[in-house]
Design brief:
This protein is of the alpha+beta class and 210 residues long. The chain is built from ten helices and four strands, in the order αααββαββαααααα. Helix 1 runs antiparallel to helix 2.
C-alpha cells in the first residue's frame, strides 16, 4: 500500500493511544488530577497534529515499529513524546511509549484495505445515500407510482431502480449498522450490488458478515 496511507494509519493509532491514556488518567506514572484538563488539551492538540500529518512529527515521535500480519507494535521516543506533551520524560507511564494494536487485512471491492487498531464508527456516505434513495423509490412504488415514472424522476433507467431498490429490504440490523458506520469494513455498495439481496434476514447476516 502507499506509504502515505500506512503512515496516516500509524499516526492515527498513536493519536488514539495518547488521548485514550490521558482521558483515563494512565498517561503519567503518577496521575495528577490538578493538571489533567491542561494535559488533556495538550494531548488532543498533539493528536490533531499527528492526524493532520504535520511535517516530520511522526518520524520524530516513532522510535521503532514492527508490523506483522496480526499486529503493529510501536516504541515511541519518550523524550520526544514528553516534550510534545510538555511533561518530564520520567513522568510518563511505561505504557505511554510502547503499545501494540491489532492489524487486519479486509477486502473492499477490488482492493485490500489494511485496518490498524480498533475500527471506529465511520459512516459510508455513498452507502447511506444509496440506502436513502432505495427507501424513497420503494415508497413511491408502494404508493402506486409506475416504475418508469420513478426512474425518470431519479434520472436513471428502470433496471437501475430495481437493482438499487433492493437495499430497502436489508434487515433493520444491517441498516442500523450502515447508519452508524459499524458495518463490516468490506460491506460496500459495490459488494451489495454484486448479487441479489436475499429476502431472508438470517441469510443476509451470513452473507454480509454480520
Amino acid at each position: 500500500m502507499p506509504a502515505t496511507k500506512l503512515e496516516h494509519q500509524i499516526a492515527t493509532s498513536i493519536a488514539s493511544h495518547i488521548v485514550g491514556l490521558t482521558e483515563t488518567h494512565r498517561l503519567l506514572a503518577t496521575p495528577d488530577l490538578r493538571r489533567h484538563d491542561l494535559l488533556l488539551d495538550t494531548a488532543r492538540t498533539l493528536a490533531k497534529r499527528l492526524r493532520d500529518c504535520t511535517s516530520g512529527l511522526l518520524h520524530k515521535i516513532v522510535k521503532i515499529g514492527h508490523l506483522s500480519q496480526t499486529s503493529l507494535h510501536l516504541d515511541l521516543a519518550p523524550n520526544i513524546l514528553a516534550a510534545e506533551l510538555e511533561v518530564a520524560s520520567e513522568e510518563l507511564a511505561i505504557e505511554a511509549a510502547t503499545f501494540t494494536v491489532p492489524v487486519a487485512l479486509r477486502r473492499r471491492g477490488v482492493e485490500t484495505k489494511l485496518v490498524i487498531g480498533s475500527s471506529t464508527k465511520a459512516p459510508d456516505p455513498v452507502l447511506i445515500r444509496a440506502l436513502a434513495d432505495a427507501h424513497r423509490w420503494a415508497l413511491a412504488l408502494r404508493e402506486g407510482t409506475p416504475l418508469k415514472t420513478v426512474a425518470q424522476e431519479a434520472g436513471h433507467h428502470g433496471a437501475y431502480i430495481r437493482t438499487r431498490g433492493q437495499l430497502a429490504f436489508l434487515s433493520p440490523k444491517i441498516q442500523r449498522a450502515i447508519r452508524d458506520g459499524t458495518q463490516p469494513v468490506d460491506l460496500t455498495l459495490e459488494r451489495l450490488m454484486k448479487t441479489p439481496v436475499p429476502l431472508d434476514w438470517r441469510e443476509q447476516d451470513r452473507l454480509y458478515g454480520m
